[in-house]
């Protein structure tokens, strides 16, 4: 008997970042020393104080369902944090804690998009934006970046004025480029979108990992902007799966219906750890140290890449990715680096249509491993 798979699922592509990770695992099983600069997560452990709070929650029996929006005390702390650090005036009831920021993006896309709609994504964009949009049946309009890996504003404006766009996705600091957009840049992009009746989704998951600029949250000044954030990158809690979405009451009331009928609620004891992350000054000290380490690694990587004659790398201003132009097909280069150098990177083709000569390199690895990776790369770049 022939069993049907929905077209909705068939049009979704596997994650290219995880695909390269699987190839690396196979080489490791063969005994090879593989340096992974592919998957985007900090290599640091979750701070001990956060783990301690979660362990205490487990030991005390805090292991059952919570409010679908998340525990009230954590939402209240987030409301205070957003007001203090992001200038976003929001009530705790306008925040939903989700099992990861990725699921928060899923909630927004499922609520705001459907068959026949269109979303605007920048080229390049994080791989899961595209698939989250495709799951709704909506189409995608791509907007190019310039040579400095910043949005092409004229093209962006033309798209929004000529096409009925329902949702614009902004990501600053940006994955995969590492660029941080200024307040002026973000204001211009948001105002053009809102003038053309599009919602704006602002993914700010890397907000604390910034080196050379200041972070700006557009929800501070504009309605119809949905803010996405989480604990994964800032506190090295990727496996804990805890994010959040911030929006007005009308949207929150729609988002929560999906959460209630899918994942029910975020993990109980992970929320207790997040309380500690926000409450304990030790957490901020540890984050500051981590960001300092990332900055040093960035400098080492960018200097090394730009020393190769056929590679050009714009210095990233945030997150922990470099996105160099390697002057040739990124799929070929990524496979060559893996097969010949045992170094994992992600091909730029995974992130959009216009960056097939770029590769994404994560510097969330030790200085020693980055140095060794650069030495191995000389084999194909010089």
UniProtKB/TrEMBL annotation:
Domain Aminotransferase class I/classII large, residue spans: 33-376
InterPro entries registered for this protein in UniProt: Aminotransferase_I/II_large, AspAT/PAT-like, NHTrfase_class1_PyrdxlP-BS, PyrdxlP-dep_Trfase, PyrdxlP-dep_Trfase_major, PyrdxlP-dep_Trfase_small
Cofactor(s) of this protein: pyridoxal 5'-phosphate
One GO BP annotation of this record: amino acid metabolic process
E.C. numbers: 2.6.1.-
Keywords, sorted A to Z: Aminotransferase, Pyridoxal phosphate, Transferase
Subunit field text: Homodimer.
UniProt similarity note: Belongs to the class-I pyridoxal-phosphate-dependent aminotransferase family.
Name by which UniProt lists this protein: Aminotransferase
């Amino acid at each position: 008997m022939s069993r049907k798979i929905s077209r909705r699922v068939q049009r979704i592509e596997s994650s290219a970042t995880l695909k390269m990770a699987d190839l690396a695992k196979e080489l490791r099983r063969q005994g090879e020393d593989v340096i992974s600069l592919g998957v985007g997560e900090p290599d640091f452990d979750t701070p001990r104080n956060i783990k301690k709070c979660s362990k205490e929650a487990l030991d005390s029996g805090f292991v059952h369902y919570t409010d679908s929006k998340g525990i009230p005390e954590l939402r209240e702390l987030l409301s205070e944090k957003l007001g203090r650090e992001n200038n976003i005036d929001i009530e705790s009831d306008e925040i939903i804690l989700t099992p990861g920021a990725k699921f928060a993006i899923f909630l927004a896309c499922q609520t705001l998009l459907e068959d026949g709609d269109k979303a605007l994504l920048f080229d390049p964009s994080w791989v899961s934006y595209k698939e989250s949009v495709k799951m709704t049946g909506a189409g995608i309009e791509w907007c190019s970046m310039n040579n400095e890996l910043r949005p092409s504003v004229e093209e962006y404006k033309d798209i929004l004025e000529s096409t009925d766009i329902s949702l614009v996705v902004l990501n600053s600091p940006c994955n995969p480029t590492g660029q941080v957009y200024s307040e002026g840049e973000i204001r211009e992009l948001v105002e053009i979108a809102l003038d053309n009746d599009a919602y704006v989704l602002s993914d700010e998951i890397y907000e604390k990992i910034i080196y050379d600029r200041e972070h700006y949250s557009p929800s501070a000044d504009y309605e119809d902007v949905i803010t996405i954030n989480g604990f994964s990158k800032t506190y090295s809690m990727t496996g804990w799966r805890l994010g959040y979405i911030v929006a007005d009451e009308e949207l929150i009331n729609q988002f929560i219906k999906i959460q209630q009928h899918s994942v029910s609620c975020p993990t109980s004891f992970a929320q207790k750890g997040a309380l500690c992350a926000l409450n304990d000054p030790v957490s901020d000290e540890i984050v500051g140290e981590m960001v300092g380490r990332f900055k040093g690694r960035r400098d080492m990587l960018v200097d090394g890449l730009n020393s190769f004659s056929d590679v050009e790398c714009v210095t990233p201003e945030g997150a922990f990715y470099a996105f160099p132009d390697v002057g040739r097909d990124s799929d070929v280069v990524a496979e060559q680096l893996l097969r010949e150098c045992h170094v994992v990177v992600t091909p730029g083709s995974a992130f959009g249509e216009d960056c097939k000569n770029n590769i994404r390199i994560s510097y969330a690895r030790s200085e020693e491993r980055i140095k060794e990776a650069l030495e191995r790369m000389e084999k194909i770049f010089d």
